[in-house]
Amino acid sequence: MNLRTLFIEDEEKIRTNLVKIFDGETIGGHTIVAESADTFEIGMDKISKRDYDIIVLDLCKGEPNEASEKPGYDILKQIQSLAFIPVIFYSGLTKDLVGLSSEVIGVVNKGDGVDKLKAEFERIITSKIALLKGQIYGHLRESLRQYFWETVHAEKKVFEPIKDDISLGYLLLRRFSNSLSKENIKQLLGDDKIKTDKAHPMEFYIFPVNTEEYEAGEILFKDGVYYAILTPSCDFIEDKINKRLRRVGSVLLAVATPLSKSEYYIDYKKTSNSTNKDRLVKLIEARKGDQFFFLPGTPFIENLILDFQNKIMVDYADLKTFNRVAKLDDPYAQSMITSFIRFYNRIGFPDIDSDYVIASL
Questions:
Q1: Domain that holds residue 236
Q2: Structure pTM?
Q3: 27 and 95 housed in the same domain
Q4: Pairing mode, if any, of strands 218-222 and 323-328?
């Protein structure tokens, strides 16, 4: 795959050298197609008119020093308002840029040489950040093409009654959402480690929380402890038409404890035999009954265990004192609530005297 890259650099010698080095270079199995802009203004004009996969951006106009004009900051803000493009700052003045460094913004000092810049290219390419936009666009185009011609057109009698209605558009967007199956995600990311018959930890969560109101399955954090909301989502809804307040007054939270502190994990770390491993696997795969529910670790949350015997009640108004970490996605939120309900709805009875029954056979 070709990766269209724009080098914004006002020093001609550096700009020419970068294009010469990178144009046609293969990094991470992908070919760099290099373009350049000799001013920040031209660079921004190009970004506004074309799609790029990576932007390499200078910080200072002219000689890099504290007194220099630094239009690179303004270009970054404009990029952030226009498009999803990873940016690598390549500058002789990087001490103020270190705080900007992230998964999508790289910082390389010109004094560190081109090899360091190549390494930053490889990091971004390996993480799939630079590839994802093009792959999603391609998937969207193909999904729309198929649905337009192979469904809407081919089944025109079915859709004929739809006149001046949003139904077709709604159906099309829902179809696109549904097209992002695990198998398609695996193909988009090009990662053979994704198992289509197993749940990847990232599938569990929506991050960050994308709703204004709280919902069942939301993960909260306060004073070093994680919690999961067990109160049904419908209780949080405010009926503005009939001027009814939320049903919820107090909110039920399940307390989460780190997996590393559970007896199953501790026993496994002491003696990693098949028995202890099996006990730990059953806990993680929710095969130890409905008392426990496992929350897999991600960059924003550690591996956690919910024990439905460990709960607290808090006032709705006090929820604002908790940090909203993430939200369990469907069907994991429903699964958590279902496990909780089954655990407290179970009805026990004494074991039957099987010895007596067998003796009488």
A1: 201-345
A2: 0.71
A3: yes
A4: antiparallel
